[in-house]
Structure formats: C-alpha cells, structure tokens
Amino acid sequence: MHKRVLGIDYGSARIGVAVSDPLRLIARALTVIRNSPSAAGEIGRLAEEQDADTIVVGMPLTLSGAKGQKAGEVERFIASLKEATGCRIVTVDERFTSSIASETLRAMGTTKKARREKGTVDAMAAALIAQSFLDRERGERR
C-alpha cells in the first residue's frame, strides 16, 4: 500500500481538502476548513489521520501561465505547510478548477442549493487538483 495524497484548493476564506485512495488512483473531496493561522496545522493533522505523505497544492496562474499576486499568497501558505507537516509538497496548475468543479457537480446532479455552498465547490476543486497530480504521476510510471 502507498501513502495517500492530499489535494488543497487554497482560498482566502476557505481551503478545500481532498484525499486519494491508498492505491493513489482516485481522489475524492474530504472537507473544507476555514483559512486561519491554524490552517496549516489542521492540514498537518488531516495528513496524519489520512496517512498522507504528499500534499498537492493548486497554484493559481494567470491565463498566460505566469504567477500573479495570489500565487505569492499560496507560496507563503506552502511555506507554513512545510513547517507544519513532514509531507512532500507539490504544486499543480489550478487554472479553471473551480469552474470545472461547478460543472462536475452539476453533471453529478448536485442540487443548485448545494452547489451554491462555496465549500462544496472548494472541496471538489481540491479533488480535481489531487486527481491531476495522480494522473500525471501514474503516466510517469508507465
């Protein structure tokens, strides 16, 4: 069995968290936590509870692929994650994950009311971030 992967969709107010299965094939939404000074510690506890050794953080890039102002905020959060966890931290391009998450929830038949709850979309976006990493990792092993 492998260690699991956590996916993180960082936001100024909320942080979506997802987790992979032990075989690192599929990611699923796990929870949403409030962004606060203790958020990195909470994610560290989740990583320990879920037996994760890798945390994949979505990096907000501009449409041209450059790092914008929000990316600096994410990089500071990553530094606090490194301090709070013993996990490997990886970033992936998160452009469009929130809109894809909304579309995925709609396709799954999620009610409009549930889709309006921001945390639902954040956790689904985290799952998409983790899944993109898992797919890329699996492709590299072939």
Structural class: alpha/beta
Using only C-alpha atoms, the radius of gyration works out to 14 Å
SSE ordering:
EEEHEHEHHH
Number of helices: 5
CATH architecture: 2-Layer Sandwich
Task: Tell me the number of strands.
Answer: 5
CATH superfamily: YqgF/RNase H-like domain
Question: What distinguishing features does this structure have?
Answer:
142 residues; alpha/beta; Nucleotidyltransferase, domain 5; 5-stranded mixed β-sheet; 25% strand
Describe the structure.
By secondary structure, the protein is of the alpha/beta class. Strands 3-2-1-4-5 form a 5-stranded mixed sheet, sandwiched between helices. α1 crosses α2 and α3 crosses α5. The longest helix is centred in the C-terminal third of the chain and has 24 residues. The radius of gyration is 14 Å and the shape is globular.
Q: Which SSEs are present, and which pair or pack?
A:
Blueprint: E1 4-10, E2 14-20, E3 27-34, H1 39-49, E4 52-59, H2 69-84, E5 88-93, H3 97-107, H4 112-116, H5 118-141
Parallel strand pairs: 1-4, 4-5
Antiparallel strand pairs: 1-2, 2-3
Entry summary:
This protein is of the alpha/beta class and about 140 residues long.
